[in-house]
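Quick start: read one record
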Amino acid sequence: MSDVLVRGARPVPLVDGVPDSLVDVLIEGGAVAAVGPAVERPAGVEEYDAAGRWVMPGLWDTHVHLGQWTLTRGRLDTSRVESPEEAVNLVAAKVAEQPGTPVIGWGHRPGTWSREPTAADLDLAAGVTPVVLVAGDGHHAWLNSAAQAALGLPLREGMIAETEWFEAYQRLNALTDAGDDPASYRRTLDAAAALGIVGLVDFEFTGAVEAWRERWSQGCDRLRIAAAVYADQLDDVLTEGLRTGDPLVPGDGRLTMGPLKIISDGSLNTGTAWCRHPYAAGAHPDHPAGAPNLDLVELTVLLDRAHAAGLEVATHAIGDAAVGAALTAYERTRARGSLEHVQLVTPDDVRGLARLGLRASVQPHHLVDDRDLTEQIWPDRTDRCFAFRWLLDAGVPVSLGSDAPVSPLDPWLAIDAAVRRTGDARPAWHAEQAMTRREALAASVGGHLTLRPGSPGDLIVLDDDPLVVGRPAVALTVAAGRVVHRL
């Protein structure tokens, strides 16, 4: 069903001018058809009594690795380990519990550990059983010798990182039952809908376009999905003539072509986020300020190809040098799209984003995860990290996401981190860069700030005012006019 009438709901005022009174919202044909008091119900349209609850546009997560997030449900959780020894003990217990079964883990953050973990550590715990422990930033992994051999990697003691790891990740499912089958995806999408999410930008690494077409036909059509593509898949997309926003399934605007995704630098935990100044600690001796994954010429060529073909570009840029290089490439090519993460910026970078009309796609909960490590390795620049206030005040469009599974696929967690800038009892970390709750909510609705005739038929009904309550219960989620969650 793509038609529904929500009666007696109080609009959340994400912008000025929203009426402070109960309204009805009619969605027909997947779009909002009428908003106001006493809207007439057309024959055959489902009616939902909001009973004075709050209504607002549905939430978007604009940066998700949906396959990896789905897989984490069946993987060993290493997010709480604080040393190589703790991780080894966790692996040994898992191997003893399921002898011979490969161990895939996710979540540890070794940047603050007192020593570097080695393959030999895991060899002692697991022997010939393959072990792959993916770090919580997704940019590197700790593998034992058996896993390295199984994935066709040259043997080494240290981590597998960045491009080499991204390529190896695509072979990871060969080690174990994947857990990203259609039924698993449907459970993930249902869980997202229960949080009020109506749409996702999926940055999964492997074959997004064809995989999503197949998945869509297998019942994974719960939410709106924009499927991104990486450089190794770009030729196929260009051959098909797909442009950002084009339907991937004829006649269904819920599944669309997303942007080209480029990973231009590394991450904080690997010491590879590319900065203008050397790290205080944690960087490789050969790259004391981190390093780019692409030089400016390579980056510019990719942006130019995508832009000429009608694709937006989403460029991963964490360090301020990476941000600066990306802005140069966007300016040279006139490409459109976003910078992803934008974790460390200068005031000039912010002005560049605004001037070029680029969106800052940020993941606020990363500041909770990265706070302590940032103080350790970038102590002289923490005031320029997660600079949400600078971005908003400069007029840069900002959208919130999770980067799941790096952070949980949970928009309320992201909103909370953007506003409070802390995840524990400590005071806010650089409170001067915080968003208001209204700003954070407005950055979470895919650019649709009000429910009005002609806007997408995506809404959520909440038990409490989200401008006041941090995690209101989601009573109803409607995506493209379809009820996808109901309490």
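The longest strand covers residues 252-263.
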